[in-house]
From TrEMBL, chain A:
Parts of the chain that traverse the membrane: 37-63, 109-128, 140-160, 172-192, 204-230, 262-284, 329-350, 370-389, 409-426
Protein name, entry field: Unannotated protein
Xref: Pfam families: Cytochrom_B_N_2
Record GO biological process: respiratory electron transport chain
Gene3D superfamilies: Cytochrome Bc1 Complex, Chain C
Molecular function terms, GO-annotated: electron transfer activity; metal ion binding; oxidoreductase activity
Keywords: Cell membrane, Iron, Membrane, Metal-binding, Translocase, Transmembrane, Transmembrane helix, Transport
GO CC, any one term: plasma membrane
InterPro entries, per the entry: Cyt_b/b6_N, Cytb/b6-like_sf, Di-haem_cyt_TM
Membrane topology: Multi-pass membrane protein
UniProt KW Transport keyword: yes
UniProtKB/TrEMBL annotation, chain B:
SUPFAM superfamilies: ISP domain (SSF50022)
CDD domains: Rieske
Domain Rieske: 221-312
Short name of any one Pfam family annotated for the protein: QcrA_N
Segments passing through the bilayer: 35-56, 76-96
Classification lineage: unclassified sequences, metagenomes, ecological metagenomes
CC annotations in GO: plasma membrane
Keywords: 2Fe-2S, Cell membrane, Disulfide bond, Electron transport, Iron, Iron-sulfur, Membrane, Metal-binding, Oxidoreductase, Respiratory chain, Transmembrane, Transmembrane helix, Transport
Name assigned to this protein: Rieske iron-sulfur protein
Principal subcellular localisation of the protein: membrane
Membrane topology qualifier: Multi-pass membrane protein
GO MF term list: 2 iron, 2 sulfur cluster binding; metal ion binding; oxidoreductase activity
Length: 528, 331
């Protein structure tokens, strides 16, 4: 035994005698994690969150969350002598006087943007592969919660510097609160300690941004990861992979080194972006005042879809009995996002309701093998993309030489027309891919070798695919649609007939597929 | 279904393929060196960071092709940090991929559902424990506890009451009053009608006593935009036309949609555009909404000139400015 081993041994002994951790540690250090590039999206979320905590803590050492009016006397000449809030002045101080301050600000902002992008990417991976199915519905809901928190946290974060752009964003948020029927103006006055902007919101959102929400994040992420750990990661179908096992690399050492190394890579890439790509140059915007604005005001990308929806809303307000209801704010700002996010959170339950499938699933679906779900996902994405495009309509207009009106009308119609088209195209594409898989299993791959037959015909030689590949392409199950009749055995209409009809229709749509290769098919091929 | 399962059998995990470094000691040594080099590059990155921090002045700009003028201090720090972090990661992953065990391991899963007897025992335990408390029998306790818990939830709500004042009529008021002078923003200079040429635009605020402080909350309601057109350009009702002065028309600058500053004026078309959500208002027709999500025209301020010829408000705004709210009477 070497000296180091002896020392480690005695430390381990000390800890184990007090916690009994050895058995638990032994089991978990050899825990198996399946490998796939798309599983790294969730890792990027986690790592960028850690980077956000680190860089954010750095920024709090100099940031002064106060709307107290000060006169700027720092080193950035164009703003010298201007009156501004202490929050804005201290952000300038971090950017120009604190060494590495600007780098940290940019790391914090880039990390936030990548954090949100990774969350969305991770969500799409989980959705399109069906990883949300039983027993992982809780984790899906936690994920939707984290996405929502992320949007709020990001918005509050870029609002803190109190520059002209961010103040405009807060103004819009205030208008949404104010638009709530009955309680709106009360809530707005409570949130802002009086009329907008007041002098209270920067200190208040600072507390929410650095304490309340990060705390909630930590709690939710911990539960999210504990569930991943306990339920074991899902895996893609393939040779030797079943619903009953998990195939991959053990935590120690391979997975630990890969995941730990990946943290440094994510951090390195974010640092590189922050070194070379300027983000949120607040000194160019100037301090916030409600009477001014700059053209091309844009939120960060993850708010863009919301802004786009608000922009495309028709100008509808109800004026009656001395009251005003702003549908042009409530529908795009609260009702539509509310429906979207609720629907997303409930999707695992809706799907298992109409498939009638209550079994555990640990093998992922290849997106093509669940055409209806994939089409639904692409449809939602299309909706978001159309909204996002309209959120940047002013920028797009100047860059592509279009008018705002053309883009606005295009997206006003597009938001209704394009998602269903995307659904149909995606579903057909999935079925075509299934057909291609079927051909591949039955006829093998094209070799590119041409053969001339004695009677002159040219044929291409096909080579059979490997048994591993054939298994991967055919191991998925194809569940038949639920058979739900409107009437019971005696011909009496069942209660909830509409619900049943809907369920049957959804189930039928979900079960559409190209039959995969069966033993009969293979036998027939042999006869050829 | 069973037919399909039998069609193609699971061939099982493919055999493990050895890497070069697993069999060739030379390759192993080479991989080891590569990992060490990657970690070495990381150390160089940290040195670059230290060098930039200590020796490069914060105000030094250098020209970098493609990127243009860059702050050398910031660039050095950032690149140093990026290199030092990125190559630690590369080293670790290269190490894992070439030298650490790469045999895939199979672990088993177990169904999460507890065995039936455990579940029954659980239900029994819960029932027994609940029985000892007598929750079912003691309805007085149950009801009073429920009431007490419900009531106690009121206290945080109550304690948050002082977050802000009640709105009252605050949202409906601005600082504009009869006779308030219009002054330039910035500059605080009163304006003669002749200061504005046809086609000109000016942002104005109500005059305040010398040296007194103007709160942002006031600017958020008081900001007004002056635009001068040819009097013949207007297509207004007689009442609205009477609110203009010699071709000068004044609108609240706070958007009637979500309160952004309506700052973009297009001289040719005489349209005002809000940069937030592109609501477009036609100045000649009293800021009528001609495009976008805003549902109401911008409120118009009634203006005239005082004895000295300076522009003043003839009266306060006749309706609330800014975005809508429940109590707003918009009829």
């Amino acid at each position: 035994m070497t000296n180091v081993e002896k020392k480690l041994g005695s430390v381990a002994n000390y800890v184990d005698e007090r916690t009994g951790a050895a058995a638990w540690m032994k089991k978990n250090l050899t825990k198996v994690f399946p490998d796939h590039w798309s599983f790294m999206l969730g890792e990027v979320c986690l790592y960028s969150f850690v980077i956000l905590l680190l860089s954010g803590t750095f920024l709090t050492f100099w940031f002064d969350p106060s709307q107290r009016e000060v006169t700027y006397e720092g080193s950035y000449a164009p703003l010298q002598g201007l009156k501004m809030s202490a929050a804005y002045a201290s952000t300038l101080h971090i950017s120009f006087e604190v060494r590495g301050g600007l780098l940290m600000r940019q790391i914090h902002h880039w990390a936030a943007i990548i954090f949100m992008a990774a969350i969305v990417g991770h969500l799409l991976r989980v959705f399109f592969t069906g990883a949300f199915r039983k027993p992982r519905e809780f984790n899906w809901i936690l994920g939707v919660g984290l996405l929502t928190l992320g949007i709020v946290e990001g918005f509050l974060g870029y609002s803190l510097p109190d520059d002209l752009l961010s103040g405009t964003g807060i103004r819009i948020a205030e208008a949404i609160i104010q638009a709530l029927p009955v309680v709106g103006s009360y809530l707005a006055f409570f949130a802002f300690d009086g009329a907008f902007p007041g002098e209270a919101f920067i200190p208040r959102i600072f507390t929410v941004h650095v304490l309340l929400l990060p705390g909630a994040f930590l709690a939710l992420i911990t539960i999210h990861l504990m569930l991943v750990w306990y339920q074991k990661h899902t895996q893609f179908p393939g040779p030797g992979r079943t619903e009953k096992n998990v195939v991959g690399y053990p935590l120690m050492p391979t997975y630990m080194a890969k995941a730990g190394g990946f943290f440094f890579i994510v951090f390195g890439v974010i640092a590189f972006l922050s070194a070379v790509a300027s983000i949120n140059p607040i000194w160019l915007y100037g301090p916030y005042t409600p009477g001014q604005i700059s053209a091309g005001s844009q939120p960060d990308w993850y708010m863009g879809w919301l802004d786009g929806l608000v922009r495309m809303a028709p100008p509808i307000e109800t004026h009656a009995f001395g009251h005003t209801i702003s549908w042009n704010i409530l529908i795009p700002g609260l009702i539509v996002p509310g429906i979207l996010f609720t629907g997303m959170a409930l999707y695992p339950f809706i799907e298992s309701w109409f498939t009638g499938d209550k079994r555990e699933h640990h093998l992922l679906d290849r997106p093509r093998n669940a055409p209806n779900r994939t089409a639904l996902g692409v449809m939602s994405l299309t909706f978001m993309m159309v909204s996002l495009i309209n959120g940047g309509n002013d920028i797009i207009a100047t860059h592509f030489d279009l008018t705002i009106n053309q883009i606005m009308w295009g997206t006003r119609f597009g938001i209704f027309i394009l998602p269903p088209i995307a659904f149909v195209i995606t579903k057909r594409l999935c079925l075509s891919l299934q057909r291609a898989d079927r051909d591949l299993v039955l006829h093998g791959t094209e070799t590119g070798r041409l053969l001339r037959l004695p009677h002159g015909e040219f044929v291409e030689v096909h080579a059979p695919i490997s048994p591993e590949k054939a298994w991967t392409l055919t191991s998925h199950e194809q569940l038949p649609a639920l058979e739900l009749t409107e009437t019971d055995a005696r011909g009496v209409r069942r209660p909830g007939a509409i619900k049943n009809k809907l369920r049957a229709r959804m189930s039928k749509a979900h079960a559409v597929s190209v039959p995969k290769v069966s033993a009969d098919d293979l036998k027939q091929i042999e006869h050829h | 279904m069973s037919n399909e399962i039998e069609a193609i059998k699971d061939p099982g995990l493919p055999a493990h393929v050895h890497r070069e470094a697993d069999t060739d000691p030379k390759a192993e040594k080479r991989a080891e060196r590569q990992v060490a080099i990657l970690f070495g590059i990381s150390a160089v990155g940290t040195l670059l960071l230290i060098f930039s921090y200590v020796f490069i002045p914060q105000d030094l700009f250098i020209f970098v092709p493609v990127m243009g003028d860059q702050n050398a201090h910031q660039l050095g720090l950032g690149l140093g940090m990026a290199i030092s972090l990125f190559f630690i990661g590369m080293g670790a992953i290269h190490w894992a991929k070439t030298l650490m065990p790469d045999t895939e391991v199979v672990a088993h899963r177990h169904e999460f559902r507890s065995p039936d007897n455990e579940r029954e025992d659980f239900v029994k335990t819960v029932k027994e424990r609940a029985g000892t408390v007598g929750m079912g029998r003691r309805s007085l306790i149950k009801k009073s506890l429920g009431a007490a818990l419900g009531l106690s939830a009121l206290s945080p709500l109550l304690l948050l009451r002082d977050l802000g004042p009640l709105p009252g009529k605050e949202l409906e008021k601005t600082s504009w009053k009869t006779g308030t002078r219009l002054v330039t923003d910035p500059g605080d200079r009163p304006i003669l009608a002749s200061d504005l040429e046809v086609g000109a635009v000016a942002q104005v605020l109500p005059a305040v006593a010398e040296g007194s402080h103007r709160a942002l909350s006031d600017i958020g309601k008081d900001a007004v935009l002056l635009i001068r057109l040819r009097p013949g350009d207007f297509q207004l009702t007689p009442e609205k036309l009477a609110m203009t002065h010699d071709g000068i028309i004044a609108f609240s600058k706070i958007c009637s949609h979500m309160g952004c500053a309506v700052a973009l004026y297009e001289q040719q078309t005489k349209h005002l555009l809000c940069p937030c959500h592109q609501s477009t208002f036609d100045v000649t027709r009293g800021a009528k909404v001609i495009f976008g999500p805003a549902a109401r025209p911008l409120p118009q301020l009634d203006i005239t000139v005082d004895a000295e010829g300076y522009l003043v408000a003839r009266s306060a705004f006749s309706e609330p400015v800014g975005p809508s709210f429940w109590e707003r009477n918009s009829q």
